[in-house]
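Why do we care about 3D structure at all? Because function follows from shape, and shape follows, mostly, from sequence. That is the central idea of this module. The next example makes it concrete: a single protein chain, its amino acid sequence, and then its structure expressed as tokens.
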Amino acid sequence: MLSIPLSALGLLLGAIGLLVALMRRGSGIGYPIGGGAVSGLALAIGIAQVAAVGSAVSGVAEAMDESHRQQTRTNQEVVASASPGGSQRPRTARDSGGPRPTKPPAPAEAEHKRPQQAEAQATIPNDVTYTIIKKYVLRSIKRSLDVRLNRKVSEDVLRAIALQLKDSDPNTYDRTFICYYLPGMIVDAGAWATTHFNPNLEVRILGLTVEEEKALKQQPDDPSREVIGSWLDERLHFGHRVTIFRQNGKVFMENKFPDGSSGKKEIVEKPSGSARKFEKKAGSSVGEFYLIDKKGDLQLWDQDGLISTARKIN
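And the structure:
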């Protein structure tokens, strides 16, 4: 603290010495300049020290005040909780800033978190068989399976098969993907159904379900038509009933879908050896045509080859 006034005095004397030297035409001017510079530097250092000490003292004072306030609140809470007739409620995790207690899930939520327990109750009928026709494993990241079913099954049976397939491998994978193909379906050309553990089990039937197939098969034919044949087209996301018929001297192809919608187009029959061949009357830019093969199934072709085969409805 004493350095500030002394430094200021030295700076003042340096200024006076500088004026005297100037009056003497600069004789001895170096001494007052040097002394004034040293005194100014000492004054700046003294002021900085005072500011630092003041800031530290202020911080200590604030910390002591906060400690005092915290102690006062603690004492009040202890007294309130100890008083049997006090009106204040007991302190909870919400009051203290701690984690809030988690209430138990509702029954529906608890059931939703245990899907495999319910799925495991489904059984696989004795007349249902399946074969793994393709398998791919990427370390512990994923396991992919292509499975051939002997017939269509319900979603519950698919769940049971999926759990059985997943448990058949002792290793653990982050994801398990299973694709199901019906007899005659080409692998990698679109599966009939999938059961993916992603990571939870998701069951999807992409083709016609058992119920949809039954409903399409049972649709009656129009007696005014000369029906050439009816088939089920099981293409991915496109399952429907196909009917080729003759009416009023023309040939038509009608497509009926599970949602009740339908579409009809005129076609023409073309000579083709032993097989019956049909083409769109309006033509096709990719050379599409239909063939009824020796088994009675309906094949769809284009200039690149066979696209799909629809099964004949007996």
